[in-house]
């Protein structure tokens, strides 16, 4: 996850084609002078040469192995020659060898205390393949990334992840080292440290305005560092670059936390793996502790395509504990036996679920509690669904075909007790039927014909289409056209902004809110990037739904279908989670319009009395057949006994889970708040973010590295989805003066100057979450401005 730029592969002399040829004076290949460090291989021969004081005569080392006669010993043909070359003790491929004939012992590549063996001098390799040897670690442009570790520690769905990368600069000049981590958009960064030559520079979370002043001071000196931006569907990319002096080591460590949400019956940890070079010590480990007990655990990676690499992955679970480990050797990482390209590029996904002997589980630690609720085996509540589909001209082509494919697939999954209708909108509004109809086989067949004949045309009238769909659902309920114990849902798909009829987002939002009246949820699916996603999200959240971006890709139809599957099976409606009066403080959201099969409701809070002897919780909801109440009563002493495995539990995990969930929900409320309410929500969110060291849209993490009596500062921010709201992320105002418009630009970092021509701008130290927004600010001149080419 760190790497040097301009990867070069260099081959050593001494393969079969060079056997029997003398090495000319000067030590280099073809008589040229040695160019420094080299790594490589030829047809499985791994060659090592040790530095000599001078190459005045050829030193011939013939290393050969007689496995049967010497038990795997390696013999140097001429001990005097080995001593003359100052060979001494050395290691390769996990085995240590000494001059002469000695037994190999466990070890790693080293040479007299050095991190790698210098290749120089004159030699000729004769003999056979060496036993017990593996390729040397890869050095790219002088930089060796010798360690990358991702350690995930999960306790009760709350994940604490630490990503560590270690690198060393073998070159004789300063080199730039980049640290890249892609982390989930739902995660909060909690710490970042940089260690150079044993000195650690920690990060501190501060209010944005405070961080801004510290940042601007550094920018005024023309010194800056890195970048965090959106990266694909689920991830944000954290990038920081550091200039590392010759012979120096650097360690990057990033920590982030998130609450794992249950989707389709599983919790998922999603890791992006892309070290960009072979890494000697590469490791991913996950330790999972679930008091309910683990029922399933799996791990897979998109890049594991052969048995050799597959053998590096282990996974196991028993009782409350689960473990996943992925530790590929250098050989296992290679794309072929003699290649320097790494196979490690893609997604690494861990999924698991827990035992559910009862519908609910409550855990209490140090005065904070978390309540998980996910009943099983309930009958599905029938749905009344209106699909509001954008068929404007911008949907032409693949987007329209993918939408139709998804709708046809969804029609296969609609249950006969469900009622549905389609509303198409462009400049005007068209309906399939005048009212909702039952999903009988005959009606489904007719609906399929309607979908297949959909054509794109015209403009985008979001307001009238949504109001038509909402009115249809309200009327069906009022006229008893749908089942009494059923639930209504509006699902809208659009790829653009309203541009005909009522086009003001605020007015559309008001109209929709008044029409729905809190009776059912609205789910907004935004297709592509050319739309106001913030508007779709605000409108959905205000009406107890959510927004989801559908990415323009070959699997867009699968994304659409996947979303429908999440809401296809409601098990309860109007869910209320209740606790004894005055027993709980600082409660997170405890009422939900729907509980869907395969999901989970999570409520957390603080106990008013930590010395209470018992804990009671009631969950009430409307089912498909009758109203249901689920009661959970706990003996506090028994709760404490259940959480004794402290080796698997990190810190006050329930308190941090509560803080994470509270911040997440406050930020959602803030999106639709105004005036004094918004100020209060902002203050609450900021206080919690600072107290628990979370990088949120209201805070920044500042990392300062003193050097040469100057402070060089980096800042990490957390954005929201879609175009950036300057009020939500005030630091973007000054970032627009410093950042180039291109989202792919990597700003240079800390450390001594690089020995290559530099541009006139300063080096900007900024660790900034940056969404690829359509309305991003234009660049201005400034110390970090780079003109477009």
Automatic annotation (TrEMBL):
It is found in: Secreted. Residues 384-567 form the VWFA domain. PROSITE patterns: VIT (PS51468), VWFA (PS50234). Pfam families: VIT, VWA. Residues 1-39, 770-789 are annotated as: Disordered. Keywords: Glycoprotein, Protease inhibitor, Secreted, Serine protease inhibitor, Signal. Residues 129-258 form the VIT domain. Residues 1-10 have a biased composition (Basic and acidic residues). Gene3D superfamilies: von Willebrand factor, type A domain. GO terms for biological process: acute-phase response. One of its GO terms (molecular function) is serine-type endopeptidase inhibitor activity. One of its GO terms (cellular component) is extracellular region. Belongs to the ITIH family. This is Inter-alpha-trypsin inhibitor heavy chain H3 isoform X4. The gene is ITIH3.
